[in-house]
Design goal:
The protein is mostly helical and 120 residues long. The chain has one domain. It is built from three helices and two strands, in the order αββαα.
Length: 120
């Protein structure tokens, strides 16, 4: 059972990273080279922090890669305890879903903001 959960966790992590990378690539193609990408929005709904295109579009994919693959790199998934294996799988599944959704929401707000500003 522990091996099955480890393989499923790796599969979920890879699937989430594929979705995150594909959406970043799609946004990369749409956003012009010299445009600053909104990163944070204030209470008024306007961007408060902007970053260069590379930083703005690759920050979540790089962070997600480090977080999701850290379980495998540290060998935390190699355990003989079934309860610990289940907990690690659930944490990995939750992280994969959360990071994937954060990328989708971030890019939705980026594209919408840049369209409203006429930069796309």
């Amino acid at each position: 059972m522990e091996t099955t959960l480890r393989v499923l966790g790796d599969g979920l992590s890879i699937a989430a990273l594929a979705i995150i990378a594909a959406t970043a690539q799609g946004a990369w193609k749409r956003i012009p080279k010299d445009v600053l990408v909104p990163m944070l929005w204030g209470r008024d709904g306007k961007p408060s922090v902007r970053a260069p295109k590379g930083v703005g579009l690759l920050s979540i994919p790089l962070l997600s890669t480090v977080v999701l693959l850290s379980f495998t790199a540290t060998q935390a998934t190699f355990t003989d305890d079934p309860i610990q294996a289940i907990l690690i799988f659930l944490v990995r599944a939750t992280l994969a879903a959360s990071l994937g959704l954060s990328q989708l929401f971030h890019l939705r707000f980026v594209i919408r903001t840049l369209q409203d500003e006429g930069q796309l």
